[in-house]
Amino acid sequence: MSVTHPLLKILKVNILELYTEExxxxxxxxxxxxxxxxxxxxxxxxxxxxxxxxxxxxxxSWISKLPRxxxxxxxxxxxxxxxxxxxxxxEGKGRLLIRAALVKKNLDVVVKxxxxxxxxxxxxxxxxxxxxxxxxSEILVSLLVQLKTITFDLNLKNASYLDTTWDIPxxxxxxxxxxxxxxIHFQEIDGHMIVLSVDKGxxxxxxxxxxxxxxxxxxxxxxxxxxxKGKVQEVFQTYKGIPVYAAFIKACECNGNVxxxxxxxxxxxxxxxxxxxxxxxxxxxxxxxxDKAPHAIxxxxxxxxxxxxxxxxxxxxxxxxxxxxxxxxxxxVERIEDGVIQVLESKDRINEPVTIAMSETGIVVTxxxxxxxxxxxxxxxxSACGRRTDYIQHFSYIAGETSCNLSKDFVCHVxxxxxxxxxxxxxxxxxxxxxxxxxxx
Length: 441
Fold this sequence. Notes:
Run_dom_sf, 31% helix, Run_dom, PID domain-containing protein, Pdz3 Domain, Methane Monooxygenase Hydroxylase, Chain G, domain 1, PH-like_dom_sf, six-stranded antiparallel beta sheet, PH-domain like, 441 residues, single chain, 13 helices
């Protein structure tokens, strides 16, 4: 009686479909995703949970533990996946490993190395598995060896959505001329930089390269997935004066449909890539205009709405600057509490009438007496803002000497507003600055 398995039969059909195309297999080949899903089903079948019942097992977990130096080419593939900053989960790492191994033609090595280490194999797979079965695993290896005759020309940089899907988006890499700004407004959502609008006549708008709904994925070779606030501007400024190299995940697939993982996000943002509805900057300024920073909300205000910015996108208010205190390397929002008290109890209080203005890019504080600028912080330097519940007319923001993720010297600046309502409005204005212009190039 022959020994076989339904998944191996389907995999054989998948391979035949790829083989009969008689051309290189690209990311957008319709047979690629079903084939990769079948491979993942085989690698996942019979996978043990190990000692941790609360974590979903992943085949990358054991692949990353395979013996080194037995196959240098495969070792390089594993190191590449480990170092990739665009995949953060075991699912994403496993999928990238499969794609990279297809390109390098060494996917069969994965199963061979595990078969040679029976203890490792028995640790990770039970009797229901294909990989853990001596005969079925031999059949699998023979099928994987056949893949060496197929050329997979896959873009391994296109990996930022592998954590959630096997669907591969359209990936475009551009070289822009040296410029002061690209003219892109974008917002970080779920670790991805979503383009909200593109300024008309800007560098990014040339030839329709970048459109609302696209995702800024990489700049100057650095991944932007899940980066901290200010990292995008930091990278842009570091390479200022030379051509700008950036990569974008396009909102629309080759078939014209919206990339599935972006559908609900773009719907919530009011962006329809299919209609190419480039939203005006004034409309973008109104996104989340009523959202407050969590630490700026008092219990009795949770149902209120607070418009703060003027039609030009700016907001300014006359307040009193009380003073400042140093916080060292700790710029967390929790430091607002003791920072306010420390300034109020200090003998070095300033108590100077000022105008605090929230512009498109940052906070500027100007003396009412001589109109000189006292403070100027970009939103990339501001780590927190808020107030105490017992001093509701006082508010403060914490800023570092450079971008938040690099700063080692945070300072808490404390102000007093004429009314409780003004304090609330100012904090909301600062919070909206975070949402709108932390992400502008």
